[in-house]
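To the team - guanosine-5'-monophosphate complex, inputs and output below.
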Amino acid sequence: MSFLKNSCCHESGSSIYQRMKHIADIFPLLETPRKIVITTHYKPDADAIGSSLGLYHYLIQYGHQVQVIAPSEVPDFIQWMPGADTVLNYEARTDEAVKALDACDYIFCLDFNHPSRVRTMEARLTAATQPKIIIDHHLEPLSNFFAYGESNPDKSSTCEMIYDFIVLHKGEQKINQEIMQCLYAGCMTDTGSFRFPATTASVHEMIAFFKHRGLEHSRIHEAIYDSYSANRLRLLGHVLHTLDLNEEEHYAIMSLSLGDAYKYEVKSGDTEGFVNMALSIKSIAVAVFLTERQNREVRISFRSKGNIDVSEFARKYFNGGGHFNAAGGVSHDGLEATINKIKTLISTKKLTQFIK
Ligand code: 5GP
Ligand code: MN
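Output:
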């Protein structure tokens, strides 16, 4: 069988909300200096922190008091971003984060579309009565959770959407080095260095604008891709050896057990991008990477080529979601049982229903 039988594309038009107000409706609210919290998803990646800090560096120029709160730590590979040292880690500094949440007038929610994505911060965020503004590009948003915003799964990255927000707000002239570095980094990583289908002309137009304003893009590639620890490379070697290949069924699975995570001293962000390695094999259409956590919890990353909707697969079987070709989910069955479950789902042809 082939997962790539149908060559048609999926329809992924912009989501339309009845209850959520347009993003431009918040502009009048931003005219006077306010206390603003910007938050993002648990285990934030470069798009999550890049969009949050990009917006931070924009809003502070209007006199707003802005606090970025990440539900968990900012990984090492994005610590170089200007302003990363101002981000509050909710898990580590809960009291300060709660104070900032209590005191703020608005909460921007970036790069996630459902309160469950902030995990340990979910109860606090749900209890907050201030207007929440979403800017995000994932599928299936919980739109009535947000008062204002923009949710567009056709967009390459939340970072690109922050640029659109600034342009709509007629603030292009305020785009400085800090903003460009943050937004470029998140857009670069979410598009697989400008190769995924969501890399539209508008992405390249944004980057052309940044280049005209003096962005040194190669320094950002270096900061992200050439700044790993030696341990991370050893870890990659180990993970590649776990490769479980089924070329007939066009899938590949790799995993990291809790014991090996300790052995290789894995830090947040160290496994970023590993799943794509399995997808680089010609015959492989679906790649899966599993990471074992405490208490039999397993986080799962799915990637696909072409017209296979792994987001729906993750949502249906692993309480997850994400994008059409890149999604994540969770299992509580332990590593081995989860791998077996995935294999069974694929070999009983359950995946074929996700070919669009
Ligand atoms: P990653 O595999 O890089 O962790 O995630 C791939 C994509 O799926 C990201 O856009 C991420 O936001 C999304 N994602 C990952 N885990 C989950 C999850 O548990 N639930 C949902 N809804 N999305 C997820
Ligand atoms: Mn993103």
